[in-house]
Design brief:
about 675 residues, alpha/beta, Rossmann fold, FAD/NAD(P)-binding domain, 3 domains, 8-stranded parallel β-barrel, 24 helices, 28 strands, globular
């Protein structure tokens, strides 16, 4: 595979073309490298990545973010040296990224007003920065230089300048955020000056024998902002300034185009890397949603980029490179683009973990040791919690049997993969289906357990992972009413009629509403055909993409919808709901459901909503009656996942992992 061909980047010889880009983890509350961070990156380097870039690393106090790696003082060099040495000793090249957030900095983090090219309010922080003076511009540039020298002194192979995602250099480049009238603003020549001066000064300081890369936004995806045209022009200038590699990502944090969620097709921004690659003479890295080595291989083989970034995919499975090189594609635990453990955590000032890899970030404190004595473990339920318990217990040497009442593993994980943008969730189920038999887990399908049957097995430990079931409606439902569960619509058991009312505005209700509203819209294949043949105007195509064949109403008792959706993905769901014309009625109480529709009430006024189909998405309750029957009848009993308390997949997998490790 081309993915595993070596490549020279500046003065680095990389063993393959898999790069792990800088990702914020919140593992360094005081800025100092610690054992948690070292063990985390050691695991990824050992797993086979060619290049690992750590960071972002702060260059000064005014542009820092919460709990980031420090590089704004010499006191951080010792820890950084240990980190660089660990990464390199485990087979990967090591780089560090220089970070300055500019107007993306929160005043509460630095104790004063953030600085930026101009005093333009940030949609991300809801704050307005103050305009930098010429003296401050020079000072910040020198801070980049000093931090770069610390990177070199610490023994890294390369330093990367962050000029993407809407951070400081982007803010100078963009006409939206740069409204200066001096030599750093106005024309393109002036707006590019700051970033080019940073790159030039860093190059001069670290010397020609040290690799320098720059991470750029291939397109801002901001109204009236820079496009791929300006990104290409900037990349050419960087090439001329002595930069060794261009690392291309998507837009800004403020962009209304999804950057990393499941709505973006795998490798969907590789075209941005291609445009820059065609304009420069140095290696180019493609980024965003490259979670499959075969997708990565296609990007490289077709010449769209020279290397690929796999950030979250290496959080999900540090051994992805080794597995791919050995052709063990079915054993790769792929990133499912849920954002629950990574970006949702970053944006809420919590440390990063991973939904599909409960060991991520815990490598330094968590040991998976062989069991002292092999035991017989019986697991009831093949959802995420049950499957992960089975995996860990079998891995440690136990004899594991799993009973699943259905004909396939997965539980509610199967439903999670059905809404638009969630298709990658199914790869998590496939991972278990492929690996559990390899670990020796005996899986018995179509086996609905009873307390008597479980007791007769005389297992050393019984694990109840029977999940949850739909909560009963707190309002009367007539027998003749056209009612179904939201899950029945998602799995295709029920085909909804023209007028659909969905009760419950949480994540399941919102995703079901989007699924129904998209019925009858153009498929990607049809859209491509119509565009290639100029069959319709762009306005007509947009209409056909946004208007399906169903009239959808979403009812929620509380104020607002999607409140249980993560902060980094909720806006995408809300955007889809608005684009598809879904009627949202929040703060409405359902009084009853009958054959005519749904009677709702708000502020004393009742309204009947005619409906051909009424879908219930009103939550779930633990399905743990079996556990109550078994209490005192088996030698060891555990209740995990939704059977204990309905929550997200992340919690179910974490509980399964922890239990499997301790059995």
């Amino acid at each position: 595979m081309k993915l595993f061909e070596p490549i020279r980047v500046g003065h680095m010889e990389l063993k393959n073309r898999i790069c792990m880009p800088a990702i914020h983890h919140s593992y360094t509350p005081e800025g100092f490298v610690n054992e948690r961070l070292i063990k985390y990156y050691e695991t990824r380097a050992h797993g086979g990545a060619g290049l690992i870039t750590v960071g972002g690393c702060t260059i000064d106090m005014l542009g820092q973010g919460p709990m980031m790696i420090g590089l704004h003082d010499d006191k951080y060099i010792k820890g950084m040296a240990k980190l660089a040495r660990t990464i390199k000793d485990n087979g990967a090249a090591a780089a560090a990224q220089l970070y300055h957030a500019g107007r993306y900095t929160h005043s509460m983090m630095i104790g004063q007003q953030p600085i930026a090219p101009s005093a333009v309010a940030s949609r991300l922080t809801r704050e307005t920065p103050r305009e930098m003076s010429l003296e401050e511009i020079e000072t910040v540039q020198e801070n980049y230089v000093r931090a770069a020298c610390r990177v070199k002194e610490a023994g890294f192979d390369a330093v990367e300048i962050l000029a993407s995602a809407g951070y400081l250099i982007c803010q100078f480049l963009s006409p939206v955020t740069n409204q200066r009238t001096d030599q750093y603003g106005g024309s393109w020549e002036n707006r590019k000056r700051f970033g080019l001066e940073v790159a030039t000064k860093v190059r001069e300081a670290v010397g020609g024998d040290f690799t320098l890369t720059v991470r750029v936004s291939g397109h801002d995806y901001i109204p009236e902002g820079n496009t791929s045209r300006e990104a290409t022009l900037f990349a050419r200038e960087l090439d001329s300034a002595g930069v060794d590699c261009i690392n291309v990502t998507g837009g800004w944090h403020e962009s209304r185009v999804p950057q990393i969620t499941g709505e973006l097709p795998p490798g969907g921004f590789a075209y941005l890397a291609r445009e820059i690659k065609e304009a420069v003479n140095i290696p180019v890295i493609a980024s965003n949603r490259i979670n499959d080595p075969l997708v990565a291989e296609e990007i490289l083989k077709t010449g769209q980029a020279d290397l690929v970034n796999m950030g979250r995919p290496l959080i999900a499975d540090p051994d992805l490179p080794v597995k791919a090189k050995e052709g063990k594609f079915d054993s790769i635990r792929r990133c499912i683009a849920c954002n629950q453990g990574c970006f949702d955590m970053v944006f809420t000032l919590q440390d990063v973990h991973c939904t599909v890899n409960p060991l991520a970030g815990r490598e330094y404190e968590t040991e998976i040791a062989p069991a002292e004595k092999q035991r017989r473990i019986l697991i009831i339920g093949g959802g995420p919690a049950g499957m992960e318990t089975a995996r860990l217990a079998a891995l440690r040497g136990h004899q594991v049997t799993l009973w699943e009442k259905g004909s396939r593993l997965g539980g509610h994980l199967s439903y999670s993969a059905m809404p638009p943008g969630k298709h990658d969730f199914i790869t998590f189920l496939e991972y278990y289906e492929n690996t559990l038999p390899q670990y020796g887990v005996e899986i018995i399908f179509n086996r609905e357990a009873s307390a008597g049957e479980i007791t007769a097995e005389k297992a050393d430990a019984v694990v109840i992972a029977t999940g949850a079931c739909g909560a009963p409606p707190p309002f009367p439902v007539e027998e003749s009413a056209p009612v179904c569960s939201a899950l029945q619509i998602l799995d295709g058991t029920v085909v909804p009629g023209k007028r659909v009312v969905i009760i419950g505005g949480g994540s399941v209700g919102c995703e079901t509403a989007v699924t129904v509203a998209r019925m009858g819209t153009l498929s990607a294949e049809n859209l491509k055909f119509l565009m290639e043949n100029d069959a319709e105007t762009s306005e007509k195509l947009k209409e056909l993409l946004s208007r399906g064949t169903r009239e959808v109403t979403l009812i929620e008792l509380e104020k607002g919808i999607g409140r249980d959706i993560g902060i980094s993905t909720r806006w995408v769901t809300i955007k889809c709901i608005r684009r598809l014309g879904i009627r949202v009625m929040d703060q409405y109480a359902v009084k009853k459901v009958n054959s005519s529709g749904v009677l709702v009430e708000k502020e004393g006024e009742e309204t009947l909503l005619p409906a051909d189909t009424v879908a219930l998405a009103i939550g779930a309750v633990a399905n743990n009656s079996l556990a109550e029957e078994l209490e005192g009848r088996v030698s060891e009993l555990h209740i995990i996942g939704d059977a204990h308390k309905p929550r997200k997949i992340t919690e179910a997998v974490r509980e399964g992992f922890d239990l499997g490790r301790m059995l």
